[in-house]
Input
Amino acid sequence: MEQLYLKDCYLTEFDAVVKSIKDDKYVVLNKTAFYSNSGGQPSDTGVLIHNDQEYPVAFVGKIDGIVSHEISVPGLKPGDKIKGIIDWDKRYNLMKYHTASHILSAIIHNETDALISGNQIGKDKTRIDFSLEDFDRELIKSYEAKVNDVIDRKLPVKIEIMPRDKALNIPTVVKLKDAFPPDISEIRVITIQDIDQQACGGTHVANTSEIPHIDIFKTENKGKNNRRLHFKFV
Output
């Protein structure tokens, strides 16, 4: 299945054909612009339209590696031609949070060599987990200021689908080498000019100027060498 958002995160509508349906609610299309829940980023929601009938999309996930759209109204059949419309307000908010989390993660790594161990993007806040022995709360606020400075610099954010060998020559990507099975021939790389370059399958804004300033409003110790911080937009 062609995942249209991988090349165009701003695509909000698309035409597709229903390939299969399971239990009258799990819909597989021949292509989709809906982001499926993964990598700490929630799935898109929205609607599929066929013959003026709307089929709300409540969740999108992968089943056996195939993107499946969970609809809340039954009635679609294989072969139906549909128009898909994503909830743009939700998507765009998640795009801004996802790119902001890349900036913050890069700054933390550059300042401390800490590795990011997890993240969860939300509609009102986002959290990042990272490996660090000690928390210096004054430094945390300095990271916040540096993120906001990057936002104000209006830096371009570029999405590239690279051949595997080229992508694995990037220092920040090669650390994830074992995450890519041998049959993966291309790797999607997100580059924030002068700040960060990493493999990522999520959706992102095209320029840091689209992101509001952040506020790191909470920090937590989550066990040995595991720290968590929460940020929101202001």
About this structure: The helical segments are 88-112, 137-152, 164-167, 171-174. Residues 2-86 form a domain with the Elongation Factor Tu (Ef-tu); domain 3 fold (CATH 2.40.30.130).
